[in-house]
Design a protein that fits this description.
Elements (H helix, E strand, L loop, with lengths): L8 H6 L14 H15 L9 H8 L6 E2 L12 E5 L2 E5 L4 H10 L8 H9 L3 H10 L4 E3 L5 H8 L5 E3 L6 E2 L1 H5 L14 E5 L4 H11 L3 E6 L7 H7 L4 E4 L7 H6 L3 E4 L3 H6 L4 H7 L4 E6 L12 H8 L1 H4 L14 H20 L7 E6 H9 L19 E6 L2 E6 L22
Parallel strand pairs: 7-8, 7-10, 8-9, 10-11, 11-12
Antiparallel strand pairs: 1-14, 2-3, 3-4, 5-6, 5-12, 13-14
Helix pairs in contact: 2-3, 2-16, 4-6, 7-17, 9-16, 14-17, 16-17
Length: about 425
């Protein structure tokens, strides 16, 4: 991964060896987190040597420190989790109401069915049949599978961050990051405009980071699909938030005046909305288009989340505590790392290219990040790295009359601005 990000042996020799964040797992979650945040620091003209490993760990687990008016919000729905099927395990995701409804429909359950009925219905089905039934109804589920090193080897043969430019083939963007100096620039993206068309965690972490570096970030959400309040407040720092139909022709007026756009919808959904990344790159010269997906552009119709990618890629079985029940990484590290890496690439492009030479599409996926993690050295046992006081790594904000406590930035030397209330801004620059 160091080579992918352009970190040479000389770079390593010039820096102190970092103390990795306390994110204990069998896989190299802590190293992935450190490298991902370090990439943004380099892209912003700052030294990764100033990073605080505890701060990174808290940022990666930000949902665990978030409180709204003193209360921790419910992060997981009763429809999200591991379920034992007749021949193995299934992982579902039902945090959004429409996904929960589709899960129940796929299992033949009524609207009031709770987790106990989901458990019973899945226990009677073969895992593949259960997943087929749920996905056919529009729900989200995967079979919990063992890792396939051959699949991951093929994935790692492709760049972790792919960049396409007008009239050129795809290539890697990593070497640009390594060429940056560590000269300190407080807000290197000041004056830049970023349109945020993302949801959940990975994309919002990317755009939250761009806002932290000074960009004017405008997030657009569809009017009929509100984001859970806790999720928005956990990743909405420093951004304006507007509700608007992305199919509106006026969206291209915003794009014409933007420096970058970050896309987090399924590739096929982007095509249906008229937001195909390559077409946007050509329609709006000078625009940096960043595309994030769960499974990669080779699966254009497939929706997914960090937890599902962990389960299908083999991570969940590797992280099993008892060798039977699947486990999980100590944080939604695929989401967070993808967000930071994409932010590093966008920052590099905006800082080091004049507008008439910026046009490009930068792509990564949660599945590609998972392949990277699976190729890194791992431990036989997830060692406990000890506890620490997280309070010095949290910040307090007033948001629309509520007191919100969130994680402070993983990037050293910077502080978040308060999140705006969801949908409280106008869709204008």
């Amino acid at each position: 991964m160091r080579q992918e990000l352009g970190l040479s042996n000389e770079d390593d020799a010039a820096r102190p060896v970092p103390v990795v964040p306390p994110l204990p797992s069998r896989l190299a979650t802590a190293d992935l987190a450190w490298a991902s945040v370090g990439a943004v620091m380099l892209a912003a003209g700052r030294s990764p040597a100033s990073l605080d490993p505890e701060r990174i760990a808290v940022a990666y687990r930000s949902d665990r420190v978030l409180t709204i008016d003193g209360l921790a919000p419910p992060v997981w729905s009763e429809y999200s989790g591991f379920w034992r099927a007749a021949d193995g395990w299934v992982r579902t995701h039902g945090n959004y109401p429409h996904h929960a409804a589709a899960l129940r429909a796929g299992l033949g359950l009524g609207e009031g069915a709770g987790g106990d009925l989901v458990r019973d219905a899945l226990a009677e089905r073969a895992s593949l049949d259960a997943v087929s039934d749920i996905t056919a109804a529009g729900g989200l589920a995967v079979v919990v599978a063992a890792e396939d090193p051959a699949v991951d080897h093929v994935a790692r043969a492709r760049p972790l961050l792919e960049i396409s430019r007008p009239g050129s083939a795809s290539g890697a963007i990593g070497h640009h990051i390594g060429q940056l100096s560590a000269r300190s620039e407080p807000l290197p993206l000041r004056g830049m405009r970023v349109l945020d068309l993302t949801r959940v965690i990975a994309g919002p972490v990317c755009t939250r980071t761009l806002a932290l570096l000074g960009a004017d970030v405008l997030r657009i959400d569809p009017p009929r699909l509100p984001e859970p309040q806790w999720q928005h407040l956990d990743t909405g720092h420093g951004k304006r938030s507007a509700v608007w139909d992305a199919r509106s022709s006026e969206l291209h007026d915003l794009l014409a005046r933007a420096d970058a756009v970050v896309l987090g919808y399924r590739p096929a959904a982007l095509d249906r909305l008229g937001l195909n990344p390559d077409l946007l790159m050509h329609r709006h010269p000078g625009l940096v288009v960043a595309q994030l997906s769960a499974w990669g552009t080779e699966h254009p119709e497939r929706a997914g989340f960090d937890s599902l990618v962990q389960a299908e890629s083999g991570i969940s079985l590797i992280e099993s505590v008892d060798g039977d029940r699947p486990g999980a990484l100590p944080a939604q590290a695929l989401d967070h790392s993808a967000g930071y890496l994409l932010a590093a690439a966008v920052t590099t492009r905006l800082r080091h290219h004049p507008r008439d030479e910026r046009s490009c599409v930068i792509r990564t996926s949660l599945r590609r990040v998972a392949a990277e993690l699976l190729g890194m050295p791992r431990r036989a046992v997830a060692e406990d790295d000890g506890e620490f006081d997280v309070r010095r790594h949290t910040a307090r904000f007033d948001v629309d009359g509520s007191t919100v406590v969130t994680a402070r930035p993983a990037l050293a030397g910077l502080e978040f601005a308060a999140p705006h209330a969801w949908g409280s801004d106008q869709p204008v620059w």
